Amino acid sequence: MKLDTAVFTNKKTLFQPMIGLISFVFMCGNVLFWTLLVHLVAPLLLLKNTRYEDFAERCFNRLYDGWVASCDWWFQNILGVRWELDDTMKADFDHWHLIIANHRSWVDVFVIFAQLKGRRPLPRVFMKQALIWLPFVGSAAYIMGFPFMKRYTKGQIQKHPKLAGKDLATTKRSCVRLLERPNSIMSFVEGTRFTKAKHQQQASPYHCLLKPKAGGISFILQTMPQTIKSITDINVLYEQKTVTGWDLLCGRIGKVKVMVREVAIPKTMLTPEYQAAGSDREHFFTWFNLYWHDKDTRMNHQLVALREASVDGSEQDFSKGNTSQE
User: Fold this and answer.
1) 244 and 205 fall within a common domain
2) Global pTM?
3) Cβ(240)–Cβ(173) under 8 Å?
């Protein structure tokens, strides 16, 4: 039964830590339930039969949808959290999509999932290879075809020249299943969560973002040439200046607004000859930094409008940022 009001209505109650603990237990049990089901379906992939493999992939997508829906149900009906989603985003399940978003907290993940649900295939996230050992979650992500990356430092390559190019080869192998059917790939290009301390430490030239680490994006474009035509650019905007996962679990999240736009990738970068992670690396990074600067400018305007609206209770003009599908 859908609740008209959240079970925990008083956000200033002394019971907030208990609410957060209950939510944490639910989230752990929820992810364990869905990942166990993924492992039960996994043996179908070993049969090497196209019919069974297709059935398994459909099951994985349904289970992924189920996990996202159950999390969203808890946030909305138990904690009373509401996301202001961008309804101008068009549904498209027929193409591959590269999704790039800012990163303030792991709350971002659930906001983005809510935005994408019913509009795009739920995203596969490029993960560090070490995360495959994360109990249940790592192996479930591997089974579902999440791509894993293993990067080598310049020092490692100098000591072992045979490692040169091996990281790209590993990425290509992990993308094989992504190429079999339309999928979404998501990346937090900042590489870490945004904080004022990190912003100052980096001497970031951006107002709302950290410096981008676009090496992973160059790898994606080079491994999947002519597959991804544009970037689905997502700005997740928080009314409150600091937001944590614990805030979400306790249900004390203020207004959260999502702004989406499509950024076309230049045609010159879509040819098989273009080596975004190789000979054309400098050109790619120049283009990407211009895109990142534009993203930061839009996000700064959107945040100002959101926070002004929360102060005077009026609807501010988001037109400079709401350029979805442009």
Assistant:
1) yes
2) 0.84
3) no
